[in-house]
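Page 42, continued from yesterday. The earlier attempt failed because a stray header line got pasted into the input along with the sequence. Redoing it now with the clean sequence only.
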Amino acid sequence: MHSQNLSDWTHEHVFSEESHAAERGTRVVMWITAAMMVVEIMAGWWFNSMALLADGWHMSSHAVAIGLSAFAYAAARRYARDSRFAFGTWKIEILGGFTSAILLMGVAVLMVVGSVERIFSPQPIHYQEAMIVASIGLVVNVVCALILGGAQDHHHDHHHEERAHHHHQDMNLKSAHVHVIADAATSVLAIVALAGGWIYGWSWLDPVMGIIGAILVATWARNLIVETGKVLLDREMDHPVVSEIREVIESETRPGSTRVADLHVWRVGRRSYACAVSVVTHDERLTPNEIRAQLAQHEEIGHVTVEINQCG
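This time it went through. Structure tokens are written below.
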């Protein structure tokens, strides 16, 4: 049995230039979002707009989520050389995304409850003032999306030579970016609701848009829970790299003589996977080093453990 040395690779994501750029971007966006969140919640309460309140609370969830993203980068960097983390600190980022998704789902439920209450107990709304605040919120969301989009472009530039199905986005940065995009969409819904109420007197449109915004938030939260949960639970055996590992080991260079008896692949970094494989072979010359050398063509496989069982 042989295991690849982990001395350099386990912390590769922490020291990259794009990680530092992503951390800076998320920190800036966090403070911008928090400031706009306070403005929208106060304005929604003052002007009696459920859509504006929903957008403000939605933005609060984004402020928390983006704050978790910034914290995850800082924690991953701080503990990068801590040997207690067997495969590095990358999953701190994933855990932050999972936590923000749970919080986001709770906010969606509160948005639905508040909107339904307004449907049965309508309140007068100061449409013009609320529309101004919602429009400012939309502009802020667009600016934040551009900041995070720039950080994503920086990340892509460093890895443009990777093959398409091996290219892995920074899930922490992506989660923050999607938060901002979703918030911009709910701002648009709030503006539409306020315009409909102001021009046509459709006061019912305000809470209805609040419910639609809640559905949008819940949908995004569910998707994030699935994506981050898959990484946290090591559910990676359907990834293309798994079949490629089998093909390399059971290659035509030794047809029928070597077979994979047991294979486990799990993700341990933004672009890194660990692999534990047990093979059965009739080839007495086959060694773990040979298998590792053949698997080395897949750069995303950062740690390989090989067990060879010789057949008589």
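Notes: The chain is about 65% helix and 10% strand.
Reminder to self: strip header lines before submitting.
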